[in-house]
């Protein structure tokens, strides 16, 4: 699935491993990844870059098992029970400049 996220979204990282002997319900969420605050982002698991003819330098950074924290609103309003954790990779693509539209003719 490909999509764009608003720059003010806050995503959740995976829950840390459980310590042996810990009581209670396991955590569903780990730390936060606020898209508006790149200085506080954790180090991506994968980073790559390439020089693209139309976009200049293109840099991709990826974090695995990132998910939104769902709430009982909108699409989840009628959901019974605990809300699921729907995680997947988060990939950020940054380019030097967007492609200019070329005119034919």
Structural overview:
- This protein has strands at residues 10-12, 32-34, 46-52, 56-66, 88-95.
- The protein has a 3-stranded antiparallel beta sheet with strand order 3-4-5, with no helix packed on it.
- 1% of the residues are buried.
- The protein is mainly beta.
- The chain contains no helices and 5 strands.
- The two termini are 36 Å apart.
- The chain is 0% helix and 30% strand.
- The mean pLDDT is 89.
How many strand units?
5
Low-confidence stretches: none
Arrangement of strands in the largest sheet:
3-4-5
Q: Strand portion, in percent?
A: 25-35%
Largest beta sheet, briefly? 3 strands, antiparallel
Radius of gyration (CA) equals: 18 Å
SS-based class = mainly beta
Average of the residue pLDDT scores: 89
Number of helices: 0
How do the SSEs run, as a string of H and E? EEEEE
Q: Give the quaternary arrangement of the chains.
A: single chain
N-to-C CA distance: 36 Å
Helix content: under 10%
Shape: globular
Summarize this entry quickly.
It is built from no helices and five strands.
Comma- or semicolon-separated keywords:
two-stranded antiparallel ribbon, globular, 5 strands, 105 residues, mainly beta
SSE blueprint and pairings:
Elements: E1 10-12, E2 32-34, E3 46-52, E4 56-66, E5 88-95
Antiparallel strand pairs: 1-2, 3-4, 4-5
């Amino acid at each position: 699935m490909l999509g764009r996220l608003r720059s003010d979204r806050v995503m959740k990282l995976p829950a840390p491993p459980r310590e042996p002997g810990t009581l209670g319900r396991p955590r569903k969420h780990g730390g936060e990844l606020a898209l508006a605050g790149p200085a506080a982002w954790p180090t991506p698991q994968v980073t790559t870059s390439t020089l693209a003819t139309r976009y200049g330098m293109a840099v991709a950074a990826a974090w695995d098992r990132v998910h939104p924290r769902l709430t009982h609103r909108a699409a989840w309003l009628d959901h019974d029970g605990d809300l699921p954790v729907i995680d997947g990779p988060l990939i950020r693509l940054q380019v030097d400049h967007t492609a200019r539209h070329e005119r034919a003719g």
